[in-house]
Each structure stands twice: as C-alpha cells, then as structure tokens.
Specification:
264 residues; mainly alpha; elongated; transport; transmembrane
Length: 264
C-alpha cells in the first residue's frame, strides 16, 4: 500500500515533466501561423523599415554595416518577446478559464512545473531564431561568427524571458493586467537595450542605465555571436544573465511552491 502524499515516481516525475513540456510545445505549434510565421514577418518589417529610412547612406556601427548591425538585435528581440508570450499566455489563459488546476493537481514538483513551461518557451524561441536567421541569411547573407555565443544568447534569453513570463502570469489575474506588464515593462526593456543602436553612442548617463538592463546583455551577446562585435565583454554579459536567470527562476519556483496567486 502507498501512503497518501508520497511521491511514487522517484526524485523526478519524468512522465509528467515530459507531458507538460510536450503540451506547451504542441500548444504553440497548433497555431504556427501566429507563433512562428508572424515573428518572421515582424522581423522582416523592422528590417525593411530601417532599410528604407536610412538606405545605404547610414554610417557603419562598430565597423559593421548598419543593417547587419541591427539584424541580430531584431532577431534576439523577437525571440525573447516570443519566449515571454509563450509562458505568460499559457498560464494566464489557464487562470482565466479556470483550468489551471489541471496543471497544479498532477504530482509535479514546483521545479518540474517551472521546467515544463520553460521547455515550451525555449523550443519556440529556438524555432523562431532559426526561421528568422534563415531569412536574414537569404536577404543579407548573415552568417554566424561564434555559434556558441549565438546559441547561448538564444537559450539563456528564452529561459530568462520565459521565467519573467511565468512571474508576470502568476501575478496577473486578468488579460489587461498581463497587457500592462507587457506594454510598460517588457516592451521598453526590449527596445531600450541596444537593439537598434550601439550603447557607446549614448550619453554617459544613459549608458549607465542601459548597463542595468539585463536584456542589453542578451542583445549584445547575440550580436557578438552573429557578427563578432559587441559593446561589452560577452563573458561579463554571460555572468549578468546567469545571475538574473537564477533570481527569476528562484522566485518563480518559490511562487509555485507556495501557490502564490494560483491557489485559493
């Protein structure tokens, strides 16, 4: 006889973890036109607008052609926004519809729920990154100078923004609250992170503020990975992102463990 409340799956409920991760992946693949094709079109529109606005007369940035300079930033910005949207939309929809209990009731530990949601965010981010890069390669001939740093930027960025999406969705009870977090926190962090400019071109005060934005290091790391140039040391950026990731995932785990704003 098994005692009530005792886990019967060992240290890890691999079946439950695999099913939650696969559910999150299937959820965004079911609407691939919105989750994969739409980001490609959005990235293409950004690139087209800047190409038409500045033409070929724009001076090089960090010794790189302007369009090539902003391409990794656009890719990374699109990737992290999709990672955030994947986890946040999944949890908020479940909370609003009242079926979040289907995720909380199975014998899954808080960290397993966290990893399951992040699996979907990272998978979506990788697919979006590959699709956009193929488009950039076809249009600009965009290569990859340092594959390790490019992949690290995408994976860490997806995990970090996916974790922020979990925090935001746990905190939000309604769609308008989620929209406010996206519009007033996530979007400014994404746009004011050196996506379309070099941080070295900013006034000293704004340079200091930029270096307090963790998304800046993700953009900068991605730019180093694709182009081999960056505003800051990629190793410094890696340390900052890893520290921020530990804080975000640690808080996410704690909120899931105590059922903060998830359980009555």
């Amino acid at each position: 006889m098994y005692e009530i409340g005792v886990r019967r799956f060992g240290a890890v409920n691999w079946m439950g973890l695999r099913m939650l991760g696969w559910r999150e992946i299937r959820r965004f693949l079911a609407v691939w036109q919105q989750t994969v094709l739409a980001p490609l079109i959005t990235a293409g529109l950004f690139l087209t607008v800047f190409a038409l606005a500045f033409g070929r007369n724009r001076a090089d940035v960090l010794g790189v052609d302007f369009l090539h300079f902003i391409a990794p930033g656009i890719l990374m910005m699109t990737v992290i926004q999709n990672a955030f949207a994947n986890t946040s939309s999944s949890i908020v929809i479940a909370k609003v519809q009242g079926n979040i209990v289907d995720t909380l009731m199975p014998p899954l530990a808080p960290w397993e729920i966290l990893v399951g949601y992040l699996t979907g965010a990272v998978a979506r981010a990788l697919i979006v990154a590959v699709v956009i890069w193929l488009g950039l390669f076809a249009v600009l001939g965009q290569g990859i100078a340092h594959p390790f740093w490019a992949i690290a930027a995408v994976v860490l960025g997806a995990a970090f923004l996916g974790g922020l999406g979990i925090l935001a969705a746990v905190f939000a009870d309604k769609f308008d609250q989620m929209a406010a977090i996206t519009n007033f926190i996530i979007t400014p962090l994404s746009f004011l992170s050196g996506t379309f400019y070099s941080a070295k071109a900013l006034p000293p005060a704004f340079q200091i503020l930029t270096h307090y934005n963790p998304v800046f290091y993700l953009i900068d790391m991605a730019r180093f990975g694709f182009l081999g140039v960056s505003d800051a040391s990629p190793w410094h950026g890696l340390a900052v992102i890893c520290a921020a990731l530990v804080l975000v995932l640690g808080l996410g785990w704690y909120w899931l463990r105590i059922g903060y704003r998830m359980k009555p």
